[in-house]
Amino acid sequence: MYLHNQRNAGHYQFQTDFNSTVIKYTPQALGIVDAYAEYLPHYEDEGVALVAVTKSATTDDLEIADKNRDFTFRGFSDKVTNSLNHFNSEVREAAKRMKVILDTYGNLAPKPNDEESGLISGLLADLRAKVPAEIVTLAVADWMAELERLNNVFIALEAGRNSEEANRSELRMKQVRLEVDAAYNKIVKRINALIIVNGETGYTEFVKVLNARIGRAKDAIAQSKAHKTEVPAPEA
Questions:
Q1: Per-residue DSSP letters for 111-166?
Q2: DSSP letter string, 193-207
Q3: Potential cystine with 86: which of 91, 102, 124, 131 (Cβ 3.0-4.6 Å)?
Q4: Within the chain, what is the greatest distance between any pair of CA atoms?
Q5: Which residues 6+ apart lie within 8 Å of 118 measured at CB?
Q6: What region does 48 belong to: left with phi over 0, alpha with psi -120 to 50, or beta?
Q7: Torsions phi, psi of 108, nearest 5?
Q8: Please, what are the averages of pLDDT over each run of 10 residues along the chain (236 residues)?
């Protein structure tokens, strides 16, 4: 019920934290590759829907969103470049292989907005398809996830500016949340089943982090309900 009772922004933040936790411990290690692949598009849709229902995009909004993704792109690129000088030879070799792909795309930050959006999506897809092991070795999964999120935020803002009403009708927040919740619950049930079959080893830290995050969500909901039910003290 904690998912159902969350406000839209809180719900999306919970899912963002959950997604980051899955990335940290990896879908492969958790044994949820298929379930996570099913979950991810629904999570991304929620991000788009949240933007559409909260406000229309102004030029300032778009400029800020573009700067955010440019900053993250540069940080991600710098991390890979700096890893070329890492003391560990395996890290250096992984950085070389990833740098080849990055160099193919070049500096995306100064590209026209629409072109940059597509190129970022293409770059991330190429990296995940061609150098998945290197992503783990260089510990850049979080960087890629954040770049993808910010790119999706920009795309949503731009689409919202062009056709806010169309976006609201296409991605109704209520329906999107139901889909995200179903995919999330499927992952949780899968992990619980795997723990029963395989034991807790390999899941202990993930479960500890997730349970702590669920606890914070429940606390936030309880506090929100308490504020709503508070009755002002009568004036003296």
A1: S-HHHHHHHHHHHHHHHHHH-HHHHHHTT-HHHHHHHHHHHHHHHHHHHHHHHHHH
A2: HHHHHH-STTTHHHH
A3: 91
A4: 74
A5: none
A6: alpha
A7: -85, -20
A8: 77 94 96 97 90 64 92 97 97 97 96 94 96 97 96 87 56 86 96 95 94 90 64 40
Give the whole-angstrom CA distance, residue 38 versus residue 180. Answer: 10
3-state secondary structure of 234: coil
How is residue 222 written in tokens? Answer: 């309880």
- Give the other-Cβ count within 10 Å of 176's Cβ: 25
Amino acid occupying residue 159: A
Which residues neighbour 190 within 8 Å (Cβ) at sequence distance 6 or greater? Answer: 31, 32, 35
The 3-state DSSP class for residue 6 equals: coil
Tokens of 49: 């829907």
Q: What pLDDT score was predicted for residue 172? A: 73
Report d(CA 9, CA 105) in Å as an integer. 34
Predicted local confidence at residue 53, as pLDDT: 67
Distance spanning both ends of the chain, measured CA to CA: 40
Tokens 């293409």 -> residue: 122
Burial class (CB in 10 A: 0-12, 13-18, 19+), 171: buried
Radius of gyration of the chain (CA): 20
